[in-house]
Amino acid sequence: MTGVAGPAGGGVDPEVRAGAGGPLLVAFAGLPGVGKSTLAARVGAALRAPVLPVDPVERALGRYGLTGDVPGMAAYGAVAGLAEVQLGLGFSVVVDAVNPVASARGLWHDLAERAGVPLRVIEVHCGDEAEHRRRVEARPPEEHVTWEQTLRRRAEYEPLIGPRLVVDTAVAVDPLPGILAYLR
Question: Which residues lie closer than 8 Å to 18 by C-beta, 6 or more apart?
């Protein structure tokens, strides 16, 4: 499924806030700098759902000397644990993560199944490479992401297979209404 919705309008349908049959798990995926965090925050606000980003957890683990591949998966595991608690309390949850490989994405499928909630995956990309690079290079220094690192991650990024909404943030149309319609 691909698409970008039309311009924003009106309030959020109460049915979308809670998810059409109760809580749901929303997992964002995409490279650094494509606009995932911005969209995840907007979706979280519209759903009145907690947004759980993986990057700050990974940075915190790094401050304690945990570096390399293991902390990356540990950060995903920690966020999955927090998401499970929130889903158990009846809240929808928005996960903000690169989700570059099938093993990381599998956490969200497994969690949704255990929690008995629908999983909605939103893959975000920026179809304008110059704009994508500008966004990466404009990020705050504490995020430690260079354009070269982003290109390496893109080379390692496993194609996302399965139902999802694909959003191109280079298109000059607000994607939020389309995302909220997809979450119904």
Answer: 47, 92
CA 57 to chain centre: 14
pLDDT in tens, 37-84: 999 999 999 999 999 999 999 888 888 887 666 557 889 999 999 999
Look-up of token digits 């998810």: 19
* Nearest CA-CA partner of 30 in 144, 126, 139: 126
Output b/e per residue, 15-42; b: 16+ Cβ within 10 A: ebebbeeebbbbbbbbbbbbbbbebbeb
Residue 130 corresponds to which amino acid?
A: A
Retrieve residue 168's tokens: 């191109």
Instruction: Report how far apart the first and last C-alpha atoms of the chain are (Å, whole number).
Output: 15
Question: What is the maximal distance between C-alpha atoms in the chain?
Answer: 47
Q: Which amino acid is present at 153?
A: R
135: phi > 0 → left, psi -120 to 50 → alpha, else beta; which?
alpha
Sheet of 165-168, strand order: 51-53, 93-96, 25-29, 119-125, 165-168
Taking the model in full, what pTM does it have? 0.86
